[in-house]
Amino acid sequence: MQAEPRQSTKAYSICCQTKMSSMKLFLVLILATAVSPIMATRSAALFRTTVKLSNSKAKETAYAPPAGSAPLIIYELIDNSTSPGNSRFETEIGRIYGVETLSLASQYVLDTLYKGQKPRYGKDYSEVVAIIESFNQARLGQYPLEVASTVGNKIRLNSDYIQYFSGDVKYEFTGIMYHESTRIWQNRNERAPAGLINGIADYVRLKAGWPSLNWEKRGSGDRWDEGYHVTAYFLEYCNSIREGFVAELNGILRFFYSDEIFVSLLGRSVDELWIGYKLAYESPAPAPTPAC
Fold first, then answer.
1. CB 197 within 8 A of CB 249
2. Which run of H or E residues covers position 131?
3. Widest CA span in the chain
4. What would the pLDDT profile of 21-78 be if each residue is shown by its tens digit?
5. CB of 61 within 8 A of CB of 76?
6. What is the pLDDT of residues 79-97, one digit of tens each?
7. What sign does the dihedral 235-238-244-247 (CA atoms) show?
8. Nearest 5°: CA angle at 169, between 230 and 36?
9. What is the Cα–Cα distance from 217 to 233, expressed in whole angstroms?
């Protein structure tokens, strides 16, 4: 079942101004977002939308004003997908939902991995940006297989993937934002398997309630560090043994990585844990056929 975002959002006022001479429409939508007091952004959020009718570019920005010790993070979404009206991102997702999801995803990641506090070492970003664009036109990634790319505090989402996605594209977009937002904030270590790093990102997506409907079932995969949803399900199993394990693992990854981390925190080797995980979701053997 599709999970609902954990914060409630209410529109307080809408102000529209039209300048016929320049054929531009400025729409300002102010939203107040009620968030948990332990989250990174505790104050109300102000969303501003500017839509230029003369071209396909649009920008959404969510401002999270500081309240006490709460950090300031500005969320910006830039839609460079296709011409107006022809983009599934524009018609089925929308820029307001897009920037709101970008904001909520980061808040959830910070809450899950850092107990609501923004990291102060190398990832103390004051701005998070998402750009919706055609990887084919921009010649990014391995078109058309690449879904998104995140470098630093900037997410690029392939609008070609959104355009031709089969299924609930709004649900899929939301899950991608949680995965890519994790890539922004999580710790990485060159000694750690790449599959563990992207597996943590999919774990957060899973924990938030937005797993891809195309994922295989729990218990799938051949290796614990296979990556993405395979590793995400394995980390879910590990976290069920020790609540907060993934957050602890992320904290340790700032300094080093070793498979012995699993032994230290969970009392079993990673290979033993993998066997236990596979057994937990192993399908029962079919009953033998009675002899004639």
1. no
2. strand 127-133
3. 88
4. 222 222 222 222 223 322 323 222 333 333 222 223 445 555 443 333 446 799 999 9
5. yes
6. 988 666 678 999 999 999 9
7. negative
8. 75
9. 9
Q: Where are the alpha helices (DSSP H) in the chain?
A: 88, 95-114, 135-138, 159-163, 169-185, 194-208, 228-241, 245-252, 260-266, 270-280
User: Among the ranges 2-16, 120-134, 219-233, which has the highest mean pLDDT value?
Assistant: 219-233
Q: Is 222 left (phi over 0), alpha (psi -120 to 50) or beta?
A: alpha
> Which positions ≥6 away from 148 have C-beta within 8 Å?
155, 156, 157, 158, 161, 176, 179, 180
Are 231 and 240 contacting, i.e. CB atoms less than 8 angstroms apart? no
Beta carbons of 98 and 180 less than 8 angstroms apart: no
Task: Say if residues 143 and 160 touch (Cβ distance below 8 Å).
Answer: yes
Whether 7 shows a pLDDT value over 60: the answer reads: no
